[in-house]
Amino acid sequence: MPTLYVSAQKEDIYHQGWIDFNKNGTKDVYEDPKANIDARIDDLMRQMTLEEKAGQLLTKFGWPLYERKGDQITLTAEAQKTLAEQGTGSLWGFMRADPWTQKTLINGLNPTYAITATNLVQRYCIEHTRLGIPLLLAEECPHGHMAIGTTSFPTGIGQASTWNPDLLRRMGAAQAKEVRKQGGHIGYGPVVDLAKDSRWSRVEEGFGEDPFLAGELGVAVMQGMQENPDYPVISTVKHFTAYGSTEGGHNGGSAHLGETELNEQILPPFRKVVEAGLLSLMTSYNEIDGVPCTGNPYLLTEVVKKRWGFKGFIVSDLFSIDGMTSLGVAEDLKDAARIALNAGVDSDLGGQAYLRLPELVKEGKVSEARIDEALRQILYLKFSFGLFDKPFRTEAEGLTKEELAEHRALAREIARQSIVLLKNDKQILPLKKEIRSIAVIGPNADTPYNMLGDYTAPQAEGQVVTVLEGIRKAVSKHTIVNYAKGCAIRDMSDKGLAEAREAAEKSDAIVLVLGGSSARDFRTEYEATAAAKASQNEESDMESGEGNDRKTLTLMGRQHELLEMMKATGKPLVVVLIKGRPLAVKDCDEIADALIDAWYPGIEGGNAVADVLFGDYNPAGRLTVSVPESVGQVPVFYNHNRSNNRSNYVEGTGKPLYPFGYGLSYTTFTYDKMTLTPETDALKVRVQVTNSGAKAGDEVIQVYVKDKVCSHAKPIMELKAFRRVHFDAGETQEVELRIPRAELEVYQGNGQWTFEPGEFVIMAGGSSDKLPLNETIYLK
What we know:
The protein is an alpha/beta fold and 780 residues long. It is 27% helix and 20% strand.
């Protein structure tokens, strides 16, 4: 492959209003900011060699390209190889920091250093490649930008528990600002995989088990990112597809789905974000019926690009093209590149296989026209996002303390709205701030990284508010707070139990913080894909997060023993769960006086939990996944197809411990009447709801549909509309919701959908198992 390296002095190419990227002393069309984008692309592509075209389809690791020592940032030898020799078009994780990348608070990039570093790498690419094509910088954004000094929001499952698209749209805009102001252009997120199996390690990243809810929330986050008026970034929705529906709950395992189930249950959230303007889509590691998702021309080209009209680019998940060799469907990397490119993958994350594309063209196994097609999509985004016109950022354009403070306040609000009150016997909650003494106990009471979830950067001291810190700030200055960890998440040591008993016995009430952790540390071992290797090392708290699938769902380590010990004290017991997946916590349900699910609530999680515990915020989070009573029920989800014996086992019920849509409040809501009005393109649903309690609060109004008779088996019910509404105490509102007619269409096969006239049961209420309003309507 010919070298793409060209040396240049910056004064030779930087001009007023334009840059001489190809260093020929003339303003070419592609260098002219006033020219039409398509004309600029045509001009640039005419000048490109086959090798340069292929290079633009590579997305390589970003963090090995720089080195930071104190305030000095330099590029490494890897930069020349990746940029000048291979002509790489995109970098992934340039600002990423975590144990896998070995980038820390000491040698990684904070928001100020990031501007220097991204400018440095862009300048090198422009000045030291023949055509000077700037880089797209892609960053992880599943719950905020995964970089030092940025805002870590609640993870996806917590975000979803807010049932608040408007709030998540604001979050998307905030993380877009944090990426763009540091020099990035792409945010990997949101995740709209459906979580059909609680054993799966990545439940925390997505929006739960329901396709309608995942689609609505996915669109909100995506639009927040892409439509930020001042700082938009390209949203890369992942992982396409059926990634959360694999056998045994194994990450990247096989999925077994028929065409109807795939189209009606798995694909709708992806279709919704594509049709709403998505610019980038990531493939998944798994295969469906033997065909790898990264090499599936039916899904990637026929469905996504042709049927749905997708205009962005498709990127592989990390090394998922390479992974087709281990699946046994490709002979080697070159063969894997052939399969992926011809299937519709436009960019190779990892960038190993697509280095072989020029050879494949010369051998006639892929066409240069297909490479051009992929290249055009990527170049279009580079031009439209201004990379050729303003490739650098200045320090004055960086993130301000005020902006980060606003984002932190937003993180607290999302965390508050995400908290689900599962149990509150005798209205033990809210607690009084003037309580004489309170014990704060448990492995997740004061462990900062356990609050954050996977895909989180190192945090500076004091950046994360733990539950203990939140409680200390919330209570009266006269309240005595007694803390003891008690035990770790997985460690079987009992050395902390006696201290926990002592702290509890001298307190008037107990807040016990249990659950799980996705916190990586520098002892964690990793797969080539960056997934953590599942480990039997009990010293690690990590039992969730990518690669940590479970075969049981009970609390690990000594946590159950600690729970029983706290109950034995006879003191009022509130259990707070911090975790990434639904756990089988029947013991908590039976023993605790009150039970709260906070998921991974992010950097402001401790304040948010305290807000709920002491009544400064009335909880209104609702579950977006069914919580199993036992692992033997898994997979358990609300919208299963109709069956005569779905809910029965020899040992007991098949019903979940807590159902989809469930969540309590410090007030009560009454559903009085429902009015249905058919319209041309929708069914209008009006629901009268009253806050019949004494406290103001939010209610999540949920509308479900049952298609009584259909051409194929359908679920017992399906969520088709929802709205989170605030009510003053005693207030009655008539809330209007709309069910688009398209949401009632039925898949007919071969990509065809139709509305089948008939009777539909419309149900409304505050949970999938509590729907007091029920009307049947014939729609034609």
